[in-house]
TrEMBL record, chain A:
GO terms for cellular component: mitochondrial matrix; mitochondrial ribonuclease P complex. Its cofactor is Mn(2+); Mg(2+). GO terms for biological process: mitochondrial tRNA 5'-end processing; tRNA 5'-leader removal. One of its GO terms (molecular function) is metal ion binding. It comes from the Eukaryota. Catalytic component of mitochondrial ribonuclease P, a complex composed of TRMT10C/MRPP1, HSD17B10/MRPP2 and PRORP/MRPP3. The keyword rRNA processing does not apply. It catalyses: Endonucleolytic cleavage of RNA, removing 5'-extranucleotides from tRNA precursor. Keywords: Hydrolase, Magnesium, Manganese, Metal-binding, Mitochondrion, Nuclease, Transit peptide, tRNA processing, Zinc. It comes from Enhydra lutris kenyoni (northern sea otter). This is Mitochondrial ribonuclease P catalytic subunit. Its EC number is 3.1.26.5. The gene is LOC111159905. Belongs to the PPR family. P subfamily. The lineage of its organism: Eukaryota, Metazoa, Chordata, Craniata, Vertebrata. PANTHER family: MITOCHONDRIAL RIBONUCLEASE P CATALYTIC SUBUNIT, PTHR13547.
UniProtKB/TrEMBL annotation, chain B:
This is tRNA methyltransferase 10 homolog C. The gene is LOC111150048. Component of mitochondrial ribonuclease P, a complex composed of TRMT10C/MRPP1, HSD17B10/MRPP2 and PRORP/MRPP3. Interacts with HSD17B10/MRPP2; forming the MRPP1-MRPP2 subcomplex of the mitochondrial ribonuclease P complex. Interacts with GRSF1. The keyword Protein transport does not apply. It catalyses: adenosine(9) in tRNA + S-adenosyl-L-methionine = N(1)-methyladenosine(9) in tRNA + S-adenosyl-L-homocysteine + H(+); an adenosine in mRNA + S-adenosyl-L-methionine = an N(1)-methyladenosine in mRNA + S-adenosyl-L-homocysteine + H(+); guanosine(9) in tRNA + S-adenosyl-L-methionine = N(1)-methylguanosine(9) in tRNA + S-adenosyl-L-homocysteine + H(+). GO terms for biological process: methylation; mitochondrial tRNA 5'-end processing; positive regulation of mitochondrial translation. Residues 198-390 form the SAM-dependent MTase TRM10-type domain. InterPro entries: MT_TRM10-typ, MT_TRM10-typ_sf, Trm10_C_MTase_dom, tRNA_m1G_MeTrfase_euk. It is found in: Mitochondrion.
């Protein structure tokens, strides 16, 4: 009792400091305080454990919900589609995975603090004065109200009456910010004559504008007869900054609108020359315009655009895909026929039966990627970051001595796939199942897996080592680079098993081209465990045999496209295709 | 202008807009330039006079003067000269890009963007060298904030000066009243005495203090901005150390003479740099000290620091890492085969958000506190409060630990971490 009291006294000031708002009355004795603190902590711990349990429960519930949703979705299509839906790299898969995450909170946007009812009709000066009196804020009233109007897209007349009121108060002068916001409204409501008026005013008053106003003016002017002046504005932008792809898009749309085709192409070339990635809208505009052009040169340029999409792994949106289809079908005398389809697992188009390009890399690409992975991902300028030179030597010798592997397993990732099961047990199950198929296996892990632990049983790890070659890296080394290296070193037939999406390693690669190569190789070689029905029946997701990319055989085109309703992440590929072929 | 001499035409709202846009073509502006001033005067009178402005729900009139009421401002805007002061430069067509960017910034300012009001030539050049639009904007925002702070400080200074003057005047009035002789023991030379005392302590630390190494070998991992931040943190740490009861003997190792780091330090310290009571050297820490007594502190280390050891030399990497280059300092330690440790943040604190990389001055304070008291609870108070939600009660945990030690009969004098016992054994060998 006595000691307790002492510790209580000793920790009293600390308590006082750490909980200044406990609202302690002076009547409390130190002892009770101390005890309370202890119990409080203990209770907290209990509460934490409770919380985790509840989290798991919600997770389970969510899973059920997601599953039911999933099944309902599956009713629409065939069962086969469901299985292809759950593919790691299929569009929308990440979105689905995140929906299973119980911690997702929908952050509702805070309501806009709108103290004033925005006028819907032009007001006169007294009414504006009155509104200004009602306004309680530290901002400039006129600036505030016009930005609110721009937000809610008020009519141009209301904004104009505001500007007239401001001008009357201010010797006929309207500030630049009001003008720009007014211009925004004019452009939004397509009031071309007003845009031209504002353009004249700006030209008269200011020597140079800023990118916001230039963008709006370009957007507004390209629809008018004075569209050529938008090009002058584009030149003005270039003097200080790189124009945005939107600026180029507007100018190109304007040029096409006024039938100046060569100018449009020149602008497009200039855009590409600046290493900008054009908006898909721009490319769509070329196709839409192409319907009425019967000219081989123009057609060839459109085919170049399709090749550009191919080389940069870009995918058109649904409406763009429709435009492409329409253009192909409008070609005279060529009899193109387009349809929207999917590709079977075998890599054959459901529409025309043609086989898609293989997912496998060419030998040159393969060698190139191997070198890059070695240099950028494993070495990365400092071998000590992910491993040590000694370990790297040890590993390289190990890989050289062993026969080429068929499957490389990320031991830790696989073992932790099923949180309820024991790690070493899961790993053993996977290894045994694959060993029965007479495959050469390599299990990569870390040294701590070998020490006896409740989750890592020594006898099970011994069985694993009997059935597969194993390599254990240091505990502070990374194992993924070794996995990539071993797989690549074994050759094109070798696959690897992990659920890791390898995005951080992809990011280590320097240029976009190599990253795309890596992604292609990853799609073709990564197995992921989907589920485990029984101990000896573990299913992997299938590996697509074909490459999802715009492709042609001369008399047929296959173009993957993004559906409007599906949210695709950057490391996923579309599942829907546009199939075009010549009727023979 | 024929005000009032027209017959107002009343129309329905729905058709007013179309008619108005037609009116534009029907009634082109026929106002000669000369009369624009007159026009604006009339306009003002018109706006301010109490003509019953068409109020809704009455029907709108679309007569010419009303039209002018809405469009009048355009005329004045067009006719008035450029009075907007946009740095008058030569109106030659091929002006230099510096002037162009200056104007751009000015226009951004008019739009209410966060850009500075005044900008020097050098800053303009820096802004021009920014590669992308977003980096330009970032840099300008930085300048804008800097300018704002400067202004606020200026205002504060003036306020203070005013109050001081007032106080002095009042005091003058008072002192004339009672001109008493007062007895004091000391002259007011506190600051100087403090400095001298700290100097003595520093000299003592140079002779007998425990070394603490700042590893300066990160200058090629950092951008200029990060390097500046690092130097600020170093200054702060050095100041903390100087004021402490029992300071460390600081070493700045791997400090390349005339490198970016050295230059910045000399710039910030001025002539005090040569009188600082610390060791700055181009040599590495492995050249100065025995390898087995060095411990590299890094948040990526797998080993957790249990106690502060007075016979070891701790190394702190002076590195501000905003680009999230994880594992850089751990890689350095691995290369030199040094022991590494990280602070036991997770053991003592309920970590909330933020990186576990602490700033150099926080590290310094924590180490000093550990050195003087040895209590983790006290030392980890220097971790920013926003990063953790509360302290974990360790007393329970360590009590159990002591009990377990007692059971296993390996209990020696004080409950320390197993790692410590391990090292003691190694020392005996």
């Amino acid at each position: 009792m006595m000691t307790l009291c002492f510790t209580g006294i000793r920790s009293f000031p600390k308590l006082w400091k750490s909980n200044p708002y406990l609202g302690l009355s002076l009547g409390h004795s130190y002892l009770s305080l101390f005890l309370k603190d202890c119990y409080g902590i203990r209770e907290q711990r209990k509460w934490f454990s409770l919380k985790t349990v509840s989290a798991q429960n919600t997770k389970a519930v969510n899973l059920l919900v997601a599953k039911s949703r999933y099944v309902r979705k599956g009713d629409e299509g065939s069962n086969k589609e469901v299985s292809s839906d759950s593919h790691l790299f299929a569009a929308g898969a990440a979105r689905k995975r995140s929906q299973m995450n119980p911690l997702r909170e929908d952050h509702a946007l805070p309501p806009v603090r709108n103290t004033i009812q925005l006028p819907t009709k032009p007001l006169n000066s007294e009414e504006w004065d009155k509104l200004k009196e009602d306004f309680k804020g530290d901002a400039n009233f006129a600036s505030w109200i016009i930005s609110q109007m721009a937000h809610s897209r008020s009519s141009v007349d209301v904004a104009k009456s505001l500007l007239a009121w401001v001008a009357a108060k201010n010797n006929g002068i309207v500030g630049y910010d009001l003008l720009v916001r007014y211009l925004y409204l004019c452009v939004f409501h397509k009031q071309t004559s007003e845009v031209i008026d504002v353009y004249e005013i700006m030209k008269a008053r200011y020597k140079r504008l800023e990118p916001g106003a230039y963008t709006l003016l370009i957007q507004g002017l390209v629809h008018s007869d004075r569209w050529k002046e938008a090009l002058l504005l584009l030149e003005d932008v270039k003097k200080v900054l790189v124009p945005s792809v939107r600026n180029y898009n507007d100018c190109i749309e304007g040029a096409l609108l006024h039938q100046d085709v060569s100018l449009a192409w020149n602008l497009y070339q200039e855009l590409l020359g600046r290493d900008l990635i054009p908006m898909l809208k721009t490319l769509k505009a070329f196709f839409d315009f192409g319907k009425n052009v019967k000219d081989d040169q123009y057609s060839n340029k459109l085919l170049d655009i399709l090749l550009y999409l191919r080389n940069n792994h870009l995918y058109p949106e649904e409406s763009f895909a429709h435009s492409i289809k329409t253009w192909f079908e409008s070609a005279p005398g060529e009899q193109w026929k387009g349809q929207f389809t999917t590709i079977k697992e075998s890599g054959q188009c459901s529409g025309c039966g043609k086989t898609m390009e293989s997912i496998h890399l060419s030998p040159e690409e393969y060698e190139f990627l191997k070198g890059k992975i070695m240099r950028d991902v494993i070495d990365g300028g400092d071998q000590y970051k992910k491993t040590t030179p000694q370990e790297l030597k040890r590993f390289q010798n190990f890989v050289k001595c062993c026969p080429p592997f068929d499957i490389v397993i990320d031991g830790l990732n696989v073992a932790k796939t099923f949180p309820k099961a024991r790690e070493s047990q899961v790993l053993l199950d996977v290894v045994s199942q694959l060993a029965k198929q007479n495959l050469q296996l390599l299990v990569l892990g870390r040294k701590h897996m070998l020490t006896q632990h409740s989750r890592w049983r020594k006898d099970e790890m011994k069985k694993v080592q009997k059935q597969a070659s194993c390599f254990f890296a240091d505990n502070i080394s990374e194992d993924d680079p070794f996995l990539l290296y071993a797989t690549l070193q074994s050759g094109n037939h070798c696959k690897f098993i992990t659920k890791d999406l390898m995005r951080d390693h992809k990011a280590c690669l320097r240029d976009a081209k190599t990253q795309r190569l890596f992604f292609k190789w990853q799609q073709g070689h990564q197995l992921a465990i989907i589920n485990r029905l029984t101990r000896s029946k573990i299913t992997f997701q299938h590996i697509p045999s074909y490459n999802t990319v715009v492709q042609t055989t001369g008399d047929s085109w296959h173009i993957p496209y993004d559906e409007d309703t599906v949210e695709r992440y950057s490391y996923e590929v579309p599942t829907k295709w546009l199939c075009l072929h010549r009727k023979t | 202008m024929r005000e009032g001499s027209y017959m107002p035409i009343f129309l329905k709202m729905s058709s007013s807009i179309t008619l108005r846009s037609c009116a534009r073509y029907l009634l082109p502006f026929t106002i000669p330039r000369k009369r624009s001033i007159l026009c604006s005067a009339i306009l003002q009178r018109y706006m301010s006079s109490k003509i019953p402005g068409v109020s809704y729900p009455k029907k709108e009139s679309t007569s010419p003067p009303e039209q002018l009421g809405l469009d009048g401002w355009k005329i004045t805007m067009k006719s008035s000269v450029q009075e907007e002061d946009v740095s008058p430069v030569s109106s030659s067509k091929d002006e230099d890009p510096l002037a162009a960017i200056r104007e751009l910034i000015e226009m951004w300012r008019l739009l209410g963007k966060e850009v500075p009001e005044h900008i020097s030539e050098e800053e303009l050049k820096t802004a021009m060298e920014c590669v992308s639009k977003s980096s330009k904007k970032k840099y300008l925002k930085y300048l804008y904030i800097k300018e704002k702070k400067k202004k606020a400080n200026q205002i504060k200074k003036e306020m203070k000066a005013a109050t001081r003057e007032k106080a002095i005047r009042e005091q003058l009035l008072e002192t004339t009243k009672d001109d008493k002789q007062q007895n004091f023991l000391f002259l007011r030379l506190w600051d100087r005495n403090m400095d001298i005392a700290m100097g003595w302590k520093g000299a003592q630390a140079m002779q007998f203090g425990q070394p603490l190494v700042f590893d300066m070998d990160y200058d090629n991992y950092m951008k200029p901005k990060e390097l500046k931040n690092t130097v600020s943190q170093l200054l702060e740490s050095e100041g903390c150390n100087r004021r402490d009861v029992d300071p460390f003997h600081l070493y700045f190792c791997n400090l390349k003479i005339d490198g970016a780091y050295h230059k910045e330090l000399v710039k910030r310290y001025g002539e005090k740099w040569d009188k600082l009571l610390l060791t700055a050297t181009e040599k590495s820490h492995v050249d100065l000290f025995p390898k087995d007594s060095l411990i590299y502190l890094t948040a990526d280390s797998p080993n957790v620091m249990t106690t502060f050891k007075h016979d070891k030399i701790y190394i702190v990497g002076s590195f501000v890492d905003k680009a999230m280059q994880t594992g850089t300092s751990l890689a350095k330690a691995k290369r030199l085969k040094l022991a590494t440790e990280c602070l036991p943040l997770d053991r003592y604190l309920q970590w909330d958000t933020g990186t576990k990389n602490l700033t150099l001055d926080q590290m310094m304070r924590i180490l000093l506190c550990l050195k003087n008291t040895g209590s983790w609870e006290e030392a980890l108070k220097f971790v920013p409060r926003r990063k953790y939600s509360g302290c974990l009660e360790i007393s329970q945990h360590s009590q159990e630990f002591v009990n377990r030690l007692k059971k296993s009969k390996t209990f020696n004098s004080s409950p320390k971490g197993s790692l410590n016992i391990h090292t003691q054994k190694r020392w005996l060998k």
